[in-house]
Amino acid sequence: MSALPPLDPPPLDPPFDGPSVPANGHGKVDWASVRADFPLLLREVHGKPLIYFDNANTGQKPACVIEAVDGYYRRHNANVSRAVHQLGTEATEAYEGTRRKLARFLNVRADELVLCSGTTFAINLVAYSWALPRLGPGDTILVSRMEHHANIVPWQIVAERTGATVRVAEIVEDGTLDLEALRRAMTADVKLLAVTHVSNVLGTVNPVREICREARRHGIVTVVDGSQAVPHRRVDIAAIGCDFYAFTGHKMCGPTGTGALWARREHLEAMPPFLGGGEMIKEVAFGGTVYNDPPQRFEAGTPNIAGFAGLGAAVDYLERLGMDHIEQREAALLAHLTQALGTIDGLRILGAAPDKAAVVSFLVEGAHAHDLATLLDLEGVAVRSGQHCAHPLLQFYGVAATCRASPAFYNTHDEIDAFVAALRKVRRLLG
Ligand code: PLP
Fold it and tell me: What pLDDT is recorded for position 2?
């Protein structure tokens, strides 16, 4: 028989019981105890201890996030913004509480954050609600070469429907944006610039603050994809000065199906709804419907309330750990990984930007990326192989696929050594 839920539900924001930071007696983070917060990292794969190096794809979840989702369903589950009863109030608070936490975490106003399923939804919202009604023949959308498909395809759809043109902002061999060419490309016909904060393939950190400042001078609206930035460094959206900033919850210790679009209030006010339904209206009559104010105008239907309860716990966790600590830790892991991979003959790393996040795409002479990843999996190592939803970027390098290792703060230096040893082994197997 299953246990009954406790009669006295704990408060919605239970005291933080995440990582013990800093805890090793020298004012440094105790990374071993941080790692212990992630239950999944204890498992084995094919009889080997798991080495999870696919964090750019999705991150693992600390126990406090898993418990927040579980606790939400056990104690608070109801729908948001509809019911006057106690559970409805608690569910609404779980959801809206996360909006406030995200706003504080990213230094923006809560009423400028549209909660949604993630970056893909967020960028499509800008494409359909901001760009489609505004762009037309003769207009240009500038898109950087290093974008994820989520920041390319919506703009191609807009171009198809409006007659606008998509133009590529090119990169140079080391995987950085050609900033001079980008500046020159900001001509009067350019209405929108889509650029990633951090590349999911190369790890390149783009100088989005400078880029957005320049774009603003030319009256160009900027859409920044923050999917790979928000989990790994302190992001201050207000300081970046963009028009739109999209990110996803599942890469930042939160549940899948969560994320948000931040947009300047004046854009949100001027944008028509993307989806119609409940929650996004003030009044509905067959004679005409009055839409809700933003951000609710863009949040039609029942949201992923449990997921956002979990994302709130993830934000608490990251804040407690400290984004500066996370950035330093991942920089050390990246330096180790890059150095260790450099000792393997015939291994080539794509991207050598001076400012780089812990994402390493590599090729090994004579071995296909999928074969490497499949054999590494048998050694317990999870890396991604393929085109990483960035076909145009791989076309630039003239390669069909790469392996990508992306450690996170909870990974260890020992895991890097074990990974590189496994890579040597599978490479021998592949001849
Ligand atoms: N943009 C970048 C840079 C990404 O790495 C990803 C996910 O891999 C996405 C967009 C898409 O995110 P989601 O699938 O959560 O919408």
Answer: 38
CA distances from 330 to 204, 231, 325, 359 (A): 14, 11, 9, 10
Going from the Cα of 200 to the center of ligand 1, the distance in angstroms, rounded, reads 8
Query: Is 253:59 a contact under the CB 8 Å cutoff?
Result: yes
List the residue whose alpha carbon is closest to atom 7 of ligand 1.
57
Neighbour-count burial of 315, counting CB atoms closer than 10 A to its CB (0-12 exposed, 13-18 middle, 19+ buried): buried
Q: Taking a C-beta distance cutoff of 8 angstroms, is the pair 194, 147 a contact?
A: yes
- Read off the tokens for 57: 């794809």
pLDDT of 145: 98
pTM of the model: 0.95
Indicate if ligand 1 lies below 6 Å from the C-beta of 144. no
Give distance in angstroms: CA of 150 to centre of ligand 1.
7
Q: Which residues are catalytic?
A: 389
Query: How close is the Cα of 71 to the center of ligand 1, in Å?
Result: 28
Residue 422, pLDDT score: 97
Ligand 1 pocket mutation pick from 227, 230, 406 by most atoms within 8 angstroms of CB: 227
Residue 189: phi and psi, rounded to 5, are: -80, -15
The whole-angstrom distance between residue 22's C-alpha and the CA centroid of its chain comes to 26
Query: Residue 21 has what pLDDT?
Result: 54
Q: Is 204 in the pocket of ligand 1 (CB under 6 A)?
A: no
Q: Is the CB of 124 under 6 A from ligand 1?
A: no
Reduced to 3 states (helix: H, G, I; strand: E, B; else coil), residue 228 is coil
Q: What are the per-10-residue average pLDDT scores of the chain (431 residues)?
A: 38 44 64 98 98 98 98 96 89 97 98 98 98 98 98 98 98 98 98 98 98 98 98 98 98 98 98 94 95 97 98 98 97 98 97 97 96 98 96 97 98 98 94 76
Among 57, 200, 204, 230, residue to substitute to test ligand 1 (most atoms within 8 Å of Cβ): 200
* Cβ–Cβ < 8 Å for 301, 295: no
pLDDT attached to residue 18:
46
Cα dihedral 35, 315, 419, 354 sign: negative
Q: How far is Cα 349 from Cα 204, in angstroms, rounded to an integer?
A: 13
Domains of the chain are 86-318 (3.40.640.10), 323-429 (3.90.1150.10)
Please tell me the predicted confidence (pLDDT) of residue 81.
79
Q: Which atom of ligand 1 is nearest to the CA of 259?
A: 15
Please tell me if the CB atom of residue 119 comes closer than 6 angstroms to any atom of ligand 1.
Answer: yes
